[in-house]
Amino acid sequence: MTHKDQFSIDRRHLLGGAAATAAALALRPGKSVFGAPAGTSDLLKAGFQEGDNVIIIGTLGEAQSINPFLTNESEGDWRCKMIFEAFVRMDPATIQPVPGPGLAADWTIDGLSYTFSIHENATFSDGTDVTADDVAFAIHGHLATSTASPRQTRFLSIAGAQEYADGSAESVSGVEVIDAKTIKITLAVPDASFVISLMDLYVPPKAALEGKSLVDDPWFLNPVGAGPFVFESWSNGGDFVARKNEHYYQEGKPGLDGFIHRVIADSTSLVLALQSNEIEGSVYPAPTLKEQLEENPDLEILTPPFNSPNGWMFNCTNEWLAKKEVRQAIAKAIPVEQYAADSLLGLGRAGVGPIAPDSWAFDTELQPLAYDPAAAKALLDSVGFPEGTEIRFNVNQGNVLREDWLVLTQQALAEIGITVVPEVIEYTTLVEATTVNRDYDVSGVDFAGATVDPGQLYEQFRSDASGNYMGYSNPELDELLVQAKQELDPEVAKDLYKQIQAIIVDDSPFFFAWYRPFLHAVHKKYTGWTGSNLTQGVFNTLEDFVLA
């Protein structure tokens, strides 16, 4: 469907797509749908040789970009990690920054100064060294206003970063190249999230990009990085292909000859592809079809903990959504518990607040805005909301849980006088419309929320933050976000985040409504993986995969 296509309210009768896919499975011939693992034809078409160990991973949505300065969604982030490598790695199990894997072999902290040692044998895939100059170049690239990096805010705590971003300085004073493999970064203020922020610093070669546009130079169409895999080809909406990096700095890795990241833009179709072994793994199969997946003896099925909740993100520059009362009314009018029971089939549950429930900063006493349609209607009346006013709500095509959430929302809001104009949009089109052009009213994709680090809220909700796609501003919240980001004592920070969560729930620039259940599936022919809540879950450390 295109950006303006309408969406039938009766599509699956709020059954999460489970019945439709079960029927599809039943129509397949024979008693077994399980085939051999992906055959050689796909691999030969992708340029591999017969006998190469190549995994095919199914993904629900296409990446918007593999430009490491511009990527702002999960598919692009993962591909950048595979091609360019993260400067600092997160432990996939504990979700804490760890030295060793990642280009930063180690680091020391002295007050506000961080000194990072780059792996001695770290090279780009063309064999040239990864140096401190490359890392400094990457930081400057994110901070440059001309780049418009969505992650600029993450690096503004570095001394001199704001001056460089404003154009009043020619370089960032807090970034100092000590030698070829050592870089020192000094902060202007304490930043509890600084090291974690470096997990999304993907390092390209300065020599290839210096003096060029970091937005649209042709180099990004065939990039060179230091990650475990080397870019091979990309058929937009189809297969993203990468092969083993023979110059990878971690000895003996990757264990695979390559991977194919295949877009199958429907979570029920992903189930069928996993059933038939057309693909060998995915983190996006419809969770309501877990029993069908478990019938395939070739699959290992993992159920990860909940991330921060899904729901509705509001564009606060909209005339009506700028009003807190309208946002609250929408939150109060939707029966989230009914959705959790009917569409999530009990696999997920009603959510509350912007932080994942397993996080140390999550407030266990936090309460959502209560479901109360009468109160919702009264809130609309209090601001003179015209009966029948149209508001656009978008979700990404193929995500059956979000599509059903849209159906329920459309029904519920009609009862209080809001006409929902539903938009079911291809993922990359939605990402661009929402995060770049800000051409949306309400989005059902979770472009806000904190799973890895509560400090993520700073770059999402602070008034002038690069990742604030809502146009939301609250001076009281701004001050609390600054205090929490600069607070190094977790117990003190926890109280600050308690206040932050309460304000976000009450103000509702994002209605965090329900915990999305995930299934991570991987073929049993592979081992070496680690279950994780990081980007792409079990495939976050694909370089560790080996044949069982």
Keyphrases for this structure?
3 domains; D-Maltodextrin-Binding Protein, domain 2; 548 residues; 28% helix; Dipeptide-binding Protein, domain 3; Dipeptide-binding Protein, domain 1; six-stranded mixed beta sheet; seven-stranded mixed beta sheet; alpha+beta; disordered N terminus; 21 strands
Average of per-residue pLDDT values: 92
How many strands in all? Answer: 21
Fraction of residues in β-strands: 15-25%
Estimated radius of gyration: 23 Å
Number of domains: 3
How many DSSP helices? 17
CATH topology of the largest domain: Dipeptide-binding Protein, domain 3
Largest sheet: 7 strands, mixed
Question: What is the approximate shape?
Answer: globular
**CATH architecture grouping of the largest domain:** Roll
Provide the low-confidence segments as ranges. Answer: 1-37
The named CATH superfamily of the largest domain:
Dipeptide-binding Protein, Domain 3
* Order of strands, widest sheet: 8-9-10-1-11-19-12
The span between the termini is 41 Å
Helix content: 25-40%
Assign the structural class, choosing from mainly alpha, mainly beta, alpha/beta, alpha+beta, or little secondary structure. alpha+beta
Which CATH class of the largest domain? Alpha Beta
